[in-house]
């Protein structure tokens, strides 16, 4: 037993210094139950970002979607979903609420809603940038053409979140109808990066049929893409989807993945996701203590929050809600971190070494 533990620690040190491992070694760390992993991940985050946690205001501006992902409550075929769209004025109102609360990034997230043409979206983005020039605008509106991504970038969008969902093509096909492909999704991510966006990919943990091998494919995909952000959260079933009877993802494995990603790419922006906070009352804190450094409270108008239901029981009140930013700050301070009032851009570490040998850092 002792030898096994020593072996796992040695692998964690190896990951910290080399930023990669073999598939078999990744499999061992993925399944491990050793808090040393989190300790090293906190240390790696600390060396790049100190004790700062970045806050993003999430504006869920439309829950219409033309797609039919089998796991998601917003899928077009879910006739029970109560659909809404926000106007430009409502979106600007959200930013107005968020700015004095300390938000310097606004994330416009929605389903793939054809109503929002390039003209309409570009207009919204440029108005936000004109009104809040010191803020970053992040878009998360799914797969679009290269030209559309370019147009929105020119309008002022700084970042784009598009979870790749799974890097394994066969697994992707079990989660989505034939109209969608992992090939196209990965291409979109490469296009976004090429255009100049700060790019976020990501995936769910514990989707039906997912194996450790699939997760290792995700780790290698992220290693190759070198995104600026990666959003990882547990799968949670939604009662009006084909996956209604499936089991939710595992919190511990999710935390292990956050820590592995922190050690693989120390400057990555990693959110402690709402899905994690939904499955575990301490999920947000646990995520940060496993190496996450971003939180994304909900800035949407209160009356639409309960309608953006990706999964059952999605949290949108209490500290998940932007107007309780003070509550979020307190919880984060209690675990020894500070919420930064800043855009929270990804720090470029390519030009200098930030990784002294394991053991030189003593985080709280
Ligand atoms: N459980 C957890 N996460 C989900 N998402 C969609 N449906 C679910 C679910 N049932 C995630 C997807 C998507 C992001 C916006 O939310 O990864 O990309
Ligand atoms: Fe639409 Fe995104 Fe839900 Fe898929 S995951 S159905 S693309 S909102």
Describe this structure in words.
The chain is an alpha/beta fold. It has a single domain (51-342), classed as Aldolase class I (TIM Barrel, Alpha-Beta Barrel). It is built from 14 helices and 9 strands. A 6-stranded parallel beta sheet has the order 2-3-4-5-6-7. Strand 4, helix 6 and strand 5 (159-161) form a beta-alpha-beta unit. Helix 1 (2-18) packs parallel to helix 3 (36-49) and helix 6 runs parallel beside helix 8. The longest helix is centred in the first third of the chain and has 17 residues, at 2-18. It starts with a helix and ends in a 24-residue tail after the last strand. The protein binds 5'-deoxyadenosine and iron/sulfur cluster.
- Quaternary form: single chain
Percent of residues in helical segments? 40-55%
The major sheet is characterized as: 6 strands, parallel
What gyration radius follows from the Cα positions, in whole Å? 19 Å
Cross-sheet strand order for the largest sheet: 2-3-4-5-6-7
Number of strands: 9
Number of H- or I-type helical stretches: 14
End-to-end distance: 27 Å
- SSE string, helices as H and strands as E: HHHEEHEHEHEHHEHEHHHEHHE
Per CATH, which architecture? Alpha-Beta Barrel
Shape from CA axes? globular
CATH superfamily: Aldolase class I
- CATH C-level: Alpha Beta
Number of domains: 1
